[in-house]
Amino acid sequence: MELLKVSAKSSPNLVAGAIAGILRDGKEAELQAIGAGSVNQAVKAIAVARVFLEGDGIVLSFVPHFAEVTVNGEERTAIRFVILRNPGS
Fold this sequence. Notes:
Elements: E1 2-6, H1 12-24, E2 29-33, H2 36-54, E3 60-71, E4 74-85
Parallel strand pairs: 1-2
Antiparallel strand pairs: 2-4, 3-4
Helix pairs in contact: 1-2
C-alpha cells in the first residue's frame, strides 16, 4: 500500500492522478491528512480520482480512519483514507 501525504496546499488533481495510477497498477493507496484544510484536499482528490478512473471501468471505495502520527517530535491525530479498487473493476 502506498502512503500519500496530503497538505492543505496539495493540488487535488495531482493527488487524484497519483491515486489513479496506483489503482491502475492493482495496488491500494492510503492518503494521510492532518488538519481541516488537508482533509478537504484529500476528499476532493478522491472525488476527482473517481472521475479519472471511470473511463477505465475502475470503481473505487475508501475507508477513513484515525491514526496517531509524530510530526516534529509531537503527537498528532491524522485522518487516513484507505482507497481500494472494488472487486470486478
